[in-house]
Design brief:
Elements lengths: L8 E5 L7 E6 L2 E6 L6 H12 L16 E5 L10 E2 L2 H9 L8 H14 L5 E5 L9 H4 L5 H7 L8 H15 L7 E6 L5 E6 L2 E5 L21 H10 L3 H10 L2 H6 L5 H9 L3 H25 L4 E5 H6 L1 H8 L21 E2 L8 E4 L4 H15 L5
Parallel strand pairs: 4-6, 7-10, 10-12
Antiparallel strand pairs: 1-2, 2-3, 5-6, 7-8, 8-9, 11-12
Helix pairs in contact: 1-3, 10-11, 11-13
C-alpha cells in the first residue's frame, strides 16, 4: 500500500478437516502446500506467516515488515457503520453479533485473536461485510413485524457483500468518468451467494439480502425469497424439525434444489444444452429474480444510471448477463453482445446508444480491506 500491488496472496482451505491445503501465489509462481497439521485458525495463521516469509515463496524477510493486519468480518450489526481499529471493546461487540452470524463471526474472531496473539504489537483492523449497508433508511431495513422484536433483538435487514458492492460501484464510476455522488447505481454480486444493491449517490439505500444471507435472490444452494409459512408447512407435512428445514433452505435449495444437477451454474448450464428441463427452469428462475430486483431498485431510486455485474457469475458468464439484461430496454439498458463476451475483466458491456451504462467489474474485496486498514493506521480515520 498505497499503490495496491499484491506481493503475494493465498487461500488456506479445509482447516481442521482432511485435505487441508494452502494455495499460495507470488507473482507468476503458484505453490500448493499440504497442511495436515493445521487444526485451528491459530495453526493456520502460523502457516501463513511462515509462507509469506519463506525464502522461495515468500514476499517478506521478517515479520517486523508487517505493519498492520486487516480482517474481513461478516457481521457488525448496528454497532459498526465503518471499518475500525480493533481493541478489546471492538472484540466484545463482534462477539455480541454472533447470534446474528453464528457460522461466520466465531471463525472471524478466531482469526483476529490468532493474529493478535502472533503479532501482538501490530495494529489490526476489522472491515465489516454489513457496514456499507448501514446507510439504508429505516423504511427499507425494517420488517413489518411487531416493533418490540426490533427493539429486543435488532431483528431487521442488514445486507451482506457490502465490501464488494462498495468497491465495484466506485470502480464502475471511475471507469466511465461518472461522479458517484450524483449517480444511481445497481450492483449485482452474483456467485454461489448472490445479492443486488441499490446505491444512490454513493450510499446503499437497499439490498436483497436481509437479516441473514438467505433472503433475496435464488442462489447456488439457498432458496432466496419464499413465503415464511413454508417452514411450518414442511414441518407438519414431512415431520421435519426447524434445523432440518433451515438446512433445506440454505443448503439443498436454489440452483441445486430446482435443477437436481448441482449448485455450480456452469454445470446447470451444461445440462440445459442436453435438454434438461429442470436445469433450464433453474436458469430462468435465477435470471428472472435478478431482473425483478433490478426493476424494483430502479423504481425505488427513481431511475438508474449504471448497472454493474460482479462476482464469479457476474464477471465470467456472458449468457447470464445477456439473459438478465434481456427485455430491460424499456428502462434504457441495451447490451452490446460483442462487448458482453468479456470474461474475467473489467469492461463496459453496453452499447454506445444505451442510456444505462452496463459494466462487468472484477471485484477486489482484499484491496478494500487493505485500503481501509492502511487509511486507519496511517491517518487514524474511520473509513467508508
Amino acid at each position: 500500500m498505497p499503490d495496491g500491488k499484491p506481493l503475494c496472496k493465498g487461500l488456506l482451505e479445509r482447516i481442521g478437516v482432511e485435505g487441508t491445503v494452502l494455495n499460495h501465489v507470488k507473482g507468476e509462481e503458484k505453490y500448493i502446500f499440504e497442511a495436515p497439521d493445521v487444526r485451528t485458525h491459530m495453526d493456520g495463521i502460523k502457516l501463513v506467516l511462515d509462507k509469506i516469509r519463506d525464502a522461495e515463496a515468500g514476499a517478506l524477510k521478517d515479520a517486523s515488515e508487517i505493519k498492520a493486519v486487516g480482517h474481513r468480518t461478516v457481521h457488525g450489526g448496528e454497532m459498526f457503520a465503518s471499518s475500525v481499529l480493533i481493541d478489546d471493546a471492538v472484540i466484545s461487540m463482534i462477539r455480541k453479533c454472533i447470534p446474528l452470524a453464528p457460522l461466520h463471526n466465531p471463525a472471524n474472531l478466531a482469526g483476529i485473536e490468532a493474529a493478535m496473539w502472533l503479532l501482538p504489537d501490530v495494529p489490526q483492523v476489522a472491515v465489516f461485510d454489513t457496514a456499507f449497508h448501514q446507510t439504508m433508511p429505516e423504511y427499507a431495513f425494517m420488517y413489518a413485524l411487531p416493533y418490540e422484536f426490533y427493539e429486543k433483538y435488532q431483528l431487521r435487514r442488514y445486507g451482506f457483500h457490502g465490501t464488494s458492492h462498495r468497491y465495484v460501484s466506485l470502480k464502475a464510476c471511475e471507469l466511465i468518468g461518472l461522479d458517484m455522488r450524483r449517480a444511481k447505481i445497481i450492483t449485482c454480486h452474483l456467485g454461489n451467494g448472490s445479492s443486488v444493491a441499490a446505491i444512490d449517490r454513493g450510499k446503499s439505500v437497499d439490498t436483497s439480502m436481509g437479516f441473514t444471507p438467505l433472503e433475496g435472490l435464488m442462489m447456488g444452494t439457498r432458496c432466496g425469497d419464499i413465503d415464511p409459512s413454508i417452514h411450518k408447512f414442511l414441518m407438519e407435512a414431512e415431520g421435519f424439525n426447524i434445523g432440518e428445514v433451515d438446512n433445506i433452505l440454505n443448503k439443498q435449495s436454489g440452483l441445486l434444489g430446482v435443477s437436481g444437477v448441482g449448485s455450480d451454474i456452469r454445470d446447470v448450464q451444461k445440462a440445459t444444452g442436453k435438454g434438461n428441463k429442470r436445469a433450464r427452469l433453474a436458469i430462468r428462475m435465477f435470471c428472472y429474480r435478478i431482473k425483478k430486483y433490478i426493476g424494483a431498485y430502479a423504481a425505488a431510486m427513481g431511475g438508474v444510471d449504471v448497472l454493474v455485474f460482479t462476482g464469479g457469475i457476474g464477471e465470467n458468464n456472458p449468457r447470464i448477463r445477456a439473459e438478465v439484461c434481456g427485455r430491460l430496454k424499456f428502462m434504457g439498458v441495451e447490451i452490446d453482445h460483442v462487448r458482453n463476451r468479456a470474461i474475467g475483466e473489467t469492461k463496459v458491456l453496453s452499447s454506445d446508444k444505451s442510456r444505462v451504462k452496463v459494466l462487468a467489474v472484477v471485484t477486489d474485496e482484499e484491496f478494500v480491506i487493505a485500503s481501509d486498514t492502511y487509511e486507519i493506521i496511517t491517518r487514524g480515520v474511520k473509513v467508508l
